[in-house]
Amino acid sequence: MTQLSAQALADLAPIVMIPARMASTRLPDKPLADILGKPMIVRVWERAMAAGVGPVVVACAEAEIKAAVEAAGGTAVLTDPNHPSGSDRIFEALNTVDPEGRHRAVINVQGDLPTIDPALIRAALKPLIDADADIGTLVAEIAREEERTNPNVVKAVTAFDPADADPWPAARALYFSRATVPANAGPLYHHIGLYAYTRDALEKFVAWPPGILEAREKLEQLRALEHGLSLWAVRVDTVPLGVDTLDDLERAREILAAERH
């Protein structure tokens, strides 16, 4: 597990926010999809709790999600169902649960990652601590040839130091694209859409209008780069399973069933 000092965590006082809404074209009512007897959103909440970095709050658009989380003993906040993005949703919920601004770091964990390794949630905080970054995120090296040219696999352009012996090294993210970048020989990195923001960076981010490159690539994180925020990526070993289809849901059930044995 990524090591974060107790003092660093105390200084940042992180909070984990999980945005969730029922609308999904490929998998309707996705947050409530059953995974071995529990709704998917509860499985994600459990993983976030296991990361042990701070309180976990589900920022939800519908009362059904709130009820499911609270029935499991979790905390959930109803938010405006018309928010354009998860970032806007978690910012509203953050101000509801922490109007005094005690939490200086906010981790945005997508609500469709029921098998995510809790250590990855911790890893996203590393750039905020080690590099004084505004935003931390995750990448994994692309191993499958077909993913190098797949526009649905977002590539992060970042230069990791080959001499860095850290098992999960971090480097500044220079760009994100659906294209195959950078050019020529060398590794390509699959971006994992999990973010750790300083509270100040999140507040700025949601206040800015969508950027030009953001609109062109359909990638929200480019807004941060267009405005000059420092965004660093931590290289991890695997891409967590995102549940978007029935096949993904079945795979998540298989993974969690295997963990029981």
The CATH homology group name: Spore Coat Polysaccharide Biosynthesis Protein SpsA, Chain A
Per CATH, the architecture is: Alpha-Beta Complex
Q: Mean of the pLDDT scores?
A: 95
Number of helical segments with 4 or more residues? 10
The parts where pLDDT drops under 50 for at least 5 residues are none
Radius of gyration: 18 Å
How far the N terminus sits from the C terminus, by CA atoms, comes to 21 Å
Widest β-sheet, arrangement of strands: 7-10-8-9-11
* Structural class designation: alpha/beta
Counting DSSP E segments of at least 2 residues, the number of strands comes to 11
Total domain modules: 1
DSSP strand (E) fraction? 15-25%
Q: What does the largest sheet look like?
A: 5 strands, mixed, barrel
Report on the architecture of this protein.
Helix content is 33%, strand content 22%. The chain has 261 residues and is α/β, with parallel strands linked by helices. 40% of the residues are buried. It has a five-stranded mixed β-barrel with strand order 7-10-8-9-11. Strands 2-3 form a two-stranded antiparallel sheet. The protein is globular. The chain contains ten helices and eleven strands. It has a single domain, classed as Spore Coat Polysaccharide Biosynthesis Protein SpsA, Chain A (Alpha-Beta Complex). Helix 3 (63-71) links the parallel strand 4 and strand 5 (75-78). It has helices spanning 6-12, 40-51, 63-71, 86-97, 118-123, 126-130, 199-207, 212-217, 222-226, 246-259, and strands at 15-20, 34-35, 38-39, 56-60, 75-78, 105-108, 135-141, 155-158, 170-177, 189-198, 231-236. The mean pLDDT is 95.
